[in-house]
Amino acid sequence: MHGWGQKGFDMSHENIFDLARDTVRGGLAELTGRWGWYFALGVFLVILGFIATSGAVATTLLSTVVLGWILLGSGAGLVLLSFLTGRWSGFLLALAAGILSIIAGIQILSYPVSGAVAINMIIGTMLLVAGTFRAIASIAMRFPNWGWALVSGIAAFALGIMLLRNWQTTSLYFLGLAIGIDLIFHGISWMSFSLGLHRLAGALGTRESERRAA
């Protein structure tokens, strides 16, 4: 009886593994069948990234204006929500946050260059603080490959210093340049992902053919 129970237990595990393997293979087959679309998406993002980088000033101003509209819309939504909720205990807090968001949105839309300068200063300060913390933490903790974290922290600190010291010149192009570079790397990652799927599809097809031949 014990042998039959053990055999049934092994067979049930084999069925579970077969089902999981078939599910994973089906999902991979669906993904690999669309690898060309992922590759096209990557190419599109890379092209957008080069356009954004070549027109960094225009990209900076456009992104600043978009942020202004987002703040304006979210502020109006918060004000409306605060009145619709009636006697909600957080009425004044939501109303104040909505009004401040509307004021910030109007200011950014009225003075996009000043808005770009403010965003540049915020990013510079964040890089300064994050770089300092990352460098100190890597030295103190000495985790595996901590040297890369130290280099990353030093680079972030140096970039923050550069942004804060040269904000008069960097404010007009840094945000657009950062967006463009991010789009380029994002596109490259999608292209690499699609090519990996394509290679995986070839490998799965070869193994399936060999299994059927056997």
Task: Write up this protein.
By secondary structure, the protein is mainly alpha-helical. Helices cover 91% and strands 0% of the residues. The protein contains eight helices and no strands. It starts with a helix and ends with a helix. The model is unreliable at 6-11 and 209-214 (pLDDT under 50).
Q: Helices and strands in order, then pairings?
A:
Layout: H1 2-32, H2 35-54, H3 56-84, H4 91-110, H5 112-141, H6 146-165, H7 167-170, H8 174-213
Q: Descriptors for this entry?
A:
extended; mainly alpha; disordered C terminus; 8 helices; 214 residues
How many discrete structural domains?
1
* Coarse shape: extended
* Proportion of strand residues: under 5%
Tell how many strands the DSSP assignment holds.
0
Brief digest:
The longest helix is centred in the C-terminal third of the chain and has 40 residues, at 174-213. The protein has eight helices and no strands.
